[in-house]
């Protein structure tokens, strides 16, 4: 390690335990930077002491002397960049060098102290400094314990500890990691990637190389390999060291390689992703030339061609400053027979509501668009500390009696491979059956407009002994894509029945008119059956959406042991559901449980290209409540 002696200004070299205490300088480069070869020539540095690139080295040396330190490290002068071996060693060691520094001076060359008659706010300049957008300065912010920020005139602005709240607003990095009360090593991979999502470097490969220390990775540098290749190699090295599956929780919209991300910006929306810390070891996963071998719980759908893989990470959602919900991250996968590829439609990533705080409002992070959800379709331009406009689940309100996490604990070994491998196997079948998740106009009763909302049907624990039997209307169910999109408008509320189905006719009188409804409620019914010898048990799942409030609901209807499945019978049972729930849509709940059946619809998200509807509401159906409760009791 080379260090500048701040007294003699000579460059000295030290190794291992002989390295003395030193200060370190963090800055952004310009065209006047001093190099190792130039600085070691005494006359050259004396002649150029007023050149900005040299002047900041002199200024940092002066600060170090004032702080009682004899040595200073700065990347421009202390690395001989003409040696590729030395450059590679320095980059692989840089995080540790910043971490071990006694103090780090951050020199903000684009932040000036405004004159007395100026209206410029120095903190606004601080927020807009180029330093916050550079790739290398991320590790320079996180590694040192003691950081002091200085303006161009070397006026002290404050320490990292004192400015932690402001820095959190600028970078999206929690103040706990800035103040050292939380260890960066416990952050999820996706969260750390999100911190780098808006940063840039002069050389494209450096965006990956600047993250080596943040993940504790060492790897050779291959300038000329390109940014995508260097970032892929970084992820491959991380997979060798970590079992954190959040490395796969990225948006696939900008990537033609759906196994690994192309760029940190693919993780821009993952600032809220955390390790799940489940009470079991994560099965090992490996990346090979065949693809990704992964062992995870699977959530099945009605379609034989797509499932959701549940990763071992969660996303936290905030209501004001408090965490109000926790959701599990799911990867939609296309394929069959446990061989899949990442899906781009109807969504690329789903954050499924798992643990919601009872009685809270629909849970969101600060400042998102309420009506969007974790459809990782694209990055957005919001501040790094907020979820991007396509990343916040609209989560339903919870009650204290709800079973929050309905996903199975049974793991399935799957292969997630490339499009070029999976599509030749089942591509024609998938195309014919799923039609790109598009819904024909004929099936939409000649409605040329794309439906606003629909229900995506999932089975977190499978169907068990139950089987799907009927739907009303029949044309509103699309089993090949596992969507139910109600098209029939519910009749106006009749005063003879209140929201709870109680008979009000006697007090209302026989000639009372129907009351107008402020919005349109579209609803329908799904019927499932379980056989007991020669007998059947029928269960109805009533689903409704309201255009006025954009709210939705799900209810279970006990249809008994005899159900004809005739249209009149389906209409009658659907009307029964109308009487139960259609009182006040703004108060609809998103969870119902009866006997051994649970229906939950607590997650809403936008779909890619508005197909098969603009917003999908994910419905979870569970038919083995006793086994689910026993499984949770064992935990």
UniProtKB/TrEMBL annotation:
Q: Where is this region: Disordered?
A: 497-517
Q: Which InterPro entries match?
A: DUF8212, HET
* Residue ranges of every copy of the DUF8212 domain listed in the record: 230-258
Domain Heterokaryon incompatibility residue range list: 22-111
The identity of this protein, by name, is Heterokaryon incompatibility protein-domain-containing protein
Q: Which organism is it from?
A: Cercophora samala
């Amino acid at each position: 390690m080379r260090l500048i002696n701040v007294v003699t200004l000579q460059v000295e070299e030290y190794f291992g335990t002989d390295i003395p205490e030193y200060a370190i300088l963090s800055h952004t480069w310009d065209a006047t930077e001093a190099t190792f070869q130039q600085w070691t020539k005494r006359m050259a540095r004396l002649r150029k002491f007023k050149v900005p690139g040299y002047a900041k080295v002199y200024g940092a040396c002066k600060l170090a002397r004032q702080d009682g330190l004899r040595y200073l490290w700065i990347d421009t002068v202390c690395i001989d960049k003409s040696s590729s071996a030395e450059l590679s060693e320095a980059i692989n060691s840089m995080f540790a060098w910043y971490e071990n520094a006694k103090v780090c001076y951050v020199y903000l060359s684009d932040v000036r102290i405004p004159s007395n008659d100026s209206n410029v706010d120095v903190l606004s300049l601080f927020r807009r400094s180029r330093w916050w957008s550079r790739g290398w300065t991320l590790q320079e912010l996180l590694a040192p314990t003691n950081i002091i920020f200085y303006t161009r005139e070397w006026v002290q602005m404050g320490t990292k500890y004192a400015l932690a709240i402001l820095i959190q607003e600028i970078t999206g990095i929690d103040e706990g990691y800035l103040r050292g009360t939380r260890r960066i090593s416990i952050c999820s991979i996706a969260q750390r990637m999100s911190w780098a999502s808006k940063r840039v470097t002069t050389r494209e490969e450096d965006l990956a190389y600047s993250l080596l220390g943040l993940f504790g990775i060492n790897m050779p540098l291959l300038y000329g390999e390109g940014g995508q290749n260097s970032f892929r190699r970084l992820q491959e090295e991380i997979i060798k060291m970590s079992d954190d599956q959040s490395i796969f929780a990225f948006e696939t919209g900008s990537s033609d390689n759906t196994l690994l991300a192309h760029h940190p910006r693919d993780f821009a929306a993952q600032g809220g992703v955390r390790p799940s810390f489940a009470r079991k070891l994560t099965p090992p996963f490996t990346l090979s030339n065949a693809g990704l071998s992964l062992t995870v719980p699977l959530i099945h759908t009605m379609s034989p061609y797509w499932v959701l893989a549940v990763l071992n990470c969660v996303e936290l959602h905030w209501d004001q400053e408090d965490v109000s919900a926790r959701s599990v991250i799911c990867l939609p996968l296309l394929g069959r027979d446990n061989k899949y590829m990442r899906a781009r439609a109807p969504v690329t990533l789903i954050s499924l509501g798992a643990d919601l705080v009872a009685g809270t409002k629909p849970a969101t992070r600060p400042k998102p668009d309420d009506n969007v959800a974790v459809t990782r379709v694209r990055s957005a331009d919001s501040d790094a500390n907020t979820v991007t406009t396509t990343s916040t689940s609209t989560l339903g309100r919870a009650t204290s009696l709800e079973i929050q996490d309905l996903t199975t604990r049974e793991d399935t070994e799957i292969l997630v491979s490339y499009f070029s491998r999976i599509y030749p196997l089942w591509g024609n079948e998938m195309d014919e059956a799923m039609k790109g998740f598009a819904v024909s106009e004929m099936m939409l009763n000649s409605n040329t407009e794309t439906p606003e909302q629909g229900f995506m049907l999932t089975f977190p624990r499978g169907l068990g002994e139950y089987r799907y039997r009927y739907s009303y209307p029949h044309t509103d169910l699309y089993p090949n894509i596992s969507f139910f999109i109600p098209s029939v408008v519910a009749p106006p509320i009749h005063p003879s029945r209140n929201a709870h189905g109680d008979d009000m006719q006697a007090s209302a009188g026989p000639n009372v008119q129907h009351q107008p409804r402020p919005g349109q409620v579209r609803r329908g019914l799904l019927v499932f059956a379980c056989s007991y010898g020669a007998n059947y048990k029928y269960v109805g799942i009533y689903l409704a959406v309201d255009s006025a409030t954009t709210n939705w609901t799900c209810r279970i209807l006990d249809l008994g042991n005899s159900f004809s499945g005739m249209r009149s019978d389906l209409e009658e049972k659907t009307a029964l559901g109308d009487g139960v729930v259609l009182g006040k849509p703004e108060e609809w709940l998103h969870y119902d449980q009866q006997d051994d059946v649970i229906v939950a619809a607590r997650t809403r998200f936008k779909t890619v290209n508005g197909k098969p509807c603009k917003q999908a509401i994910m419905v979870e159906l569970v038919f083995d409540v006793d086994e689910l409760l026993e499984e949770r009791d064992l935990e």
